[in-house]
Prior knowledge:
Layout: H1 3-20, E1 21-24, H2 26-35, E2 46-47, H3 58-68, H4 82-92, H5 97-102, H6 105-120, H7 122-135, E3 143-147, H8 149-157, E4 162-165, E5 168-173, H9 185-193
Antiparallel strand pairs: 1-3, 2-4, 3-5, 4-5
Helix pairs in contact: 1-9, 3-7, 4-6
Amino acid sequence: MNTAIDNAVDVRAGNYVEREVYFCDSWLVDDLLRRGDVDGFQIDNIEGLYPDPFEWSLAECHEWLEDIGIDCPDDNPWAMDLAQLREWNTGAVLIDEPEAEQMTEDDLRKAIIDAIDEGGYADNVAEWRDAISDNAEMQEVLEWWRVSSWMYEQLREIGEPGINNGYGHWWGRTCTGQKMIMDGTFQQIARKFT
Length: 194
């Protein structure tokens, strides 16, 4: 673990909270959503309530399913030993057979995962993405915070709930009771730029 990078990420994340998160609008947004008749403040206007895995890599799908505790699809390269990887590769023809025979288990697994992500076996990725969609639960927004348009886009990219309409940009925070810097959300954004 690189302490200098971690420190830079924490500083950048703190700067984001200070500059890009304006104020808490929970009461206002909740009231407008409850009314249901204010343009731009209907439940359908909330983005990111469910994960959208349809552009996720196989590794991202695997991580999400493992984190949530949901069984991965049967063709799971992370659960296969070297013989199973070679056998599965033979049927799927992702890596040339002579090349695959020379690879270690870890190298073959990585090569298969990379080949799947590059479109070599699209049905497999679709199965993983469907497993996420079938098991995803709606995120519960506990607080609404007005944020800059730039921060809104960054939060949207990492799957955070939000509302973007003619009145402004709001982030739907799914944590409460602690400083928002402790959520890890802004560190996730900061890592992209560090």
